[in-house]
Amino acid sequence: MEAQKRYRPNVAAVIVSAHYPFKCELFIACRNDIADAWQFPQGGIDEGETPKEALFRELQEEIGTRDIEIIGEYPDWLQYDFPQKIAQKMYPFDGQSQKYFLVRLKKDAKINLATKEPEFIEYKFVTLDKIFDFITFFKRPVYKLVLDYFKKEGYL
Questions:
Q1: What b/e string do you get for 87-120 counting C-beta neighbours within 10 Å, with b at 16 or more?
Q2: What pairs with residue 16 in β-bridges?
Q3: Taking a C-beta distance cutoff of 8 angstroms, is the pair 70, 102 a contact?
Q4: Is residue 20 scored above 70 in pLDDT?
Q5: Alpha-carbon gap, residue 8 to 104, rounded angstroms
Q6: In the CATH scheme, what is the code of domain 7-152?
Q7: If you average pLDDT over residues 49-64, what whole number do you get?
């Protein structure tokens, strides 16, 4: 019998620029520990923390701002498994169970990747039709579900 997988509770932010809804461009960042791995900001939910509280904390820790407004929320938790190399680093977790939020940067928000414990080396805004040119392979299925949902709901 196969052991039950363990998933780390996590939040993720699909960030649109302050130009939204007039211009729909999505924020992605390149990790500092995996070559050419672009993704949305995300992070673990601490004990006793709500997903929304974790969202604001993680954005502050990862991109140096909490100057966002929540536009939408994916209705379900989504899971993905880590590739073997990452699973070893993330032990005892086999993957992540994520709650996704669609957020807009406020007009004067400042991005700062030089945080206390930097996770990203670079960021950019890309259009929806270019997003999968950058996103790391193992995150693509979940990102597709989330982005398709926000498109269907009329947000993107």
A1: eeeeeebbbbbbbbbbbbbeeebebebeeeeebb
A2: 26, 104
A3: yes
A4: yes
A5: 25
A6: 3.90.79.10
A7: 98
